[in-house]
Amino acid sequence: MIRDLNDTLVFVRVVRLGSFTAAAQALQIPKTTVSRRVRELEQAIGVQLLRRTTRQLSLTEAGAVYYEQCKDIAATLEHAELAVHQLRDGPRGWLRVTVPYSFGVSWFAPLVAGFRQAYPEIKLEILASHVPLDLVGEEIDVALRLGALPDSSLVARRLASYATGIYAAPEYIERHGAPVTPDALIQHCTLVLNQARRDVGYVWPLRKAGAKLRNYRVEPTIIANDPALLKDALLAGEGLSLGMDRSMQIDVEAGRLCRVLPQWIGPPQDLNAVTAREHLPSPKVTAFIKYLKERMSVSEISHDWTE
């Protein structure tokens, strides 16, 4: 039996940082103490965990197994200790957040500014990405994500649901006209996300009051992996696009876009605040999610929508 859990935590830190010296600096203890604790851990377990040479440090087979079993425990303890310190001192420190690259500054930036005013002791690092990032591997505290969340290792808290509709630039409508019914979409240039397989085809699920949900075939002329790219093409008059009303609002008011088939609505898009299941939510994470939830409506979708 291990006599001191601290020895295990020191071992995990050595492996994570790759050297005794780096671990000693991070833990703010002498290098000799780090080496001694790892050696005592090996003696307590009865196996060698690390191969030590003058040039490098590597795990033995037993060490690799032991590290895989202990790294999550160490991370949980570190987060628990951080949470206790933050409870004592209040939410503070760096908060690492990832958001979709397509998030517009017109509505997200004011939220960030307001949060900073409410919690001046919290500093934000924001990572915009076309693809979902690994929250654990990238050491991300919170991810804001749109749509379905298939990864069961994540914890999602819904912040809002946004209605969707079909939009086009006036220039496109002048050249090609506007579809009168959803069945006419197949005859138009459409801009779609690459979330469906090409061999199956692309469809837009639409419905209106008093009608059932139907999938309408579209023939895309532009396919992209991020809504921001489609938005640029949409504004350039390249075709029709199914998007969130919230993200189109400013351009509609400015006359750069107009709603097509306004009686028909698309599926709502949920906005979720996502955290890693293995990480305990710290006060700064809790404060951030609570702040966003209080300032976002969870009922912006049309009540006419049904699956």
UniProtKB/TrEMBL annotation:
UniProt xrefs under PROSITE patterns: HTH_LYSR
Gene3D superfamilies found in the cross-reference section: 3.40.190.290, Winged helix-like DNA-binding domain superfamily/Winged helix DNA-binding domain (1.10.10.10)
Tagged with keyword Transferase: no
UniProt xrefs under InterPro entries: LysR-type_TF_proteobact-type (IPR058163), LysR_HTH_N (IPR000847), LysR_subst-bd (IPR005119), WH-like_DNA-bd_sf (IPR036388), WH_DNA-bd_sf (IPR036390)
GO MF: DNA-binding transcription factor activity; sequence-specific DNA binding
Keywords: DNA-binding, Transcription, Transcription regulation
Transcription recorded as keyword: yes
All copies of domain HTH lysR-type, residue ranges: 1-60
Any GO BP: DNA-templated transcription
Pfam families associated with the record: HTH_1, LysR_substrate
UniProt cross-references to PANTHER family, sorted A to Z: HTH-TYPE TRANSCRIPTIONAL REGULATOR (PTHR30537), TRANSCRIPTIONAL REGULATOR-RELATED (PTHR30537:SF68)
Family designation: Belongs to the LysR transcriptional regulatory family.
Protein name: LysR family transcriptional regulator
Source taxonomy: Bacteria, Pseudomonadati, Pseudomonadota, Gammaproteobacteria, Pseudomonadales
